[in-house]
Structures are given as structure tokens and as C-alpha cells.
Amino acid sequence: MSMLNIHAEALSSVNEAFHTFLLKYRRQGEAVYGVVEGKDDPLFYRTAIERFLPEGWKIEIFVAGNRQKVIDFFNWIDWSKYSRRRIAFFIDRDLADYGLCVLPDELNIYVTDHYSIENHIFTFETFWRVLIDAYNVADATPDDEAQIRNAFTAGLIRYKNSLLPIMAQILAWRRAGVRANIGNLDLSALFSFQNGMLILNPDYEAEESRLAHLSNCCGAEISDDEDLQDARAIFESVPHYLDLVRGKYLTWFFASILRNVHQSISQFVPSYNQPPKTRLPVGATNVMVLAGPRARIPVSLRQFIDRTFLAIDTTQAE
What we know:
InterPro entries: DUF4435. This is DUF4435 domain-containing protein. The strands form two sheets. The chain has a four-stranded parallel β-sheet, with helices on both faces. Helix content is 45%, strand content 9%. It is built from 13 helices and six strands.
């Protein structure tokens, strides 16, 4: 296929990322190329990858828009003319463990270990770095840190468990082919924080009330009891099911507990009579800007980088 035909196909498919890639790609040069799903993904992947590249090298990242568009991008490339070690693709596992989508098995396609990359990012270690760097909490002792860690860990476990009926319903919808805008779920109605502790708001202590709220937010009807029970059993049949809670829902938890721990910092760090002045504002809409570059990378991603980008012969064009 000629370059003109490739350009025409990219444009006819309205995939701006692929078109931009064709304009920027150079067979030679100190650059590698990555394709990701969403607009926040480069905030993690760029830092995670560039720290391992040789001096002077960079990564160009293209946002395809969603999982399928990343896979389409991969399929559009004539791999007889491009290097699989210079161009890599990064997709979320999503609910593939339940047979809802096929996981590509390719040298240069990375699939997250958990639901999405957010599940790897929003850990206590990342939380602690953001609390220090953005919220200026610098005077905590090791004992203070341990107390905050306990609050974070307990809250995250409770949060994930409270979302299990919601994840079961999402699984049931996906299995039935029901369209539901799961990104519209208002989590602030379900949960709040007090002194660093997660609180499931009283109106939503019953699972049925959480499901009714999900239905109202997402514009889809709740499944019947039998289908819902089957979906719950299937969801929890995977050993690491708590790591398959939707990653975007963890964004709300992470941003909210950061804000609340800062506001109630005197409960954890006695040396503070009032919260220290913040260096940078943090909210659910921008928390990835701070958390992404501060997160540790999964072992599986480091191994992927080793066998792709770091396997390039930098003395020759690939």
C-alpha cells in the first residue's frame, strides 16, 4: 500500500492520531512511538518510558481515543515496513478476564495487569508523593505516615468492596449488550470522607440503592435478580477481582481522600495545627497530571519496554 493510500485510509476512518503518526514517523532518529487510549494516559506513559530510554531519545505519544481505535491503529500498519520495536501500543485490560473482549498477543502491544493503568497508579505510594509535593505535607514522622497509610488502605478496600454490586451490574450490561454511560456515575453522592475515613452515605448502604443510583446516572435499567446474581458470581470468580474495579472510579477516590487528609491533617500529624498551604490544586479532573509522573511502573511494563524500545539497535535504522 502506497503512502498516499495509507493517508487516504486514515482520513476516511477519521483517525486523526494515525494521520498524525504518519506525518511524524521517522524510520531513523532518536525517537520511539507509543499509541494509547485516552488523553490522560500520556501523563503516565511518557515519564514511565522516557526514564529508561538512552540519553537524547524521546517518545512521541498518540492518543487514539479508545481501546478499539488503538487496535485498529495497529492493524492499519504494514509491519513489513515498520519496526515493532520502535512503535508500541498500550491498552487497558478492561473486563477481558470475563471473555468480553479479546486480548491481543503481539510483541508490541502492552495490556495492563488490572482493569486499567489507573489501577496501577492510584496506590498509597503515589498518594504519599502527591501529598508531600502538592499539598506540602512535609513534617510527618514514620508513625504519622503509617497512620495515614492505614486510613488510605482501609478506605480503598472498603471503597472497592462497596462498588462490587456496581461492577457486577456493569458486567451484566456488557454481557447483554446493553449500552450504558458508566462514566456518568456520580460517586460523590455515594461516598464521603471524614478525618481520612471513607463513609458510605446512609442513603446508599443497601446495595439496591447503589444500583438504582447507577441506573439513574447511566441511563440503563437494572438487570433482573438472577442475571445480577450470576454476574456477581462471575465477577468475583477471578482471583484478583478487586483489581478489576473500573480505574476511572479510582480517580474520584484518590482525589477525594487527598483533599480530605490534607484538610484533616492535624488528626494524623500532630505538628500541624492547620493544613499547610497547598503548592498545587488537585481535583478529579487534574489529579493524573500530578499522580501519573509520580507512580511506579508495573514490572510487566518494565519488561515490555525492555523487549521493545530498549531492544532497538541504536547504531542502525530499524
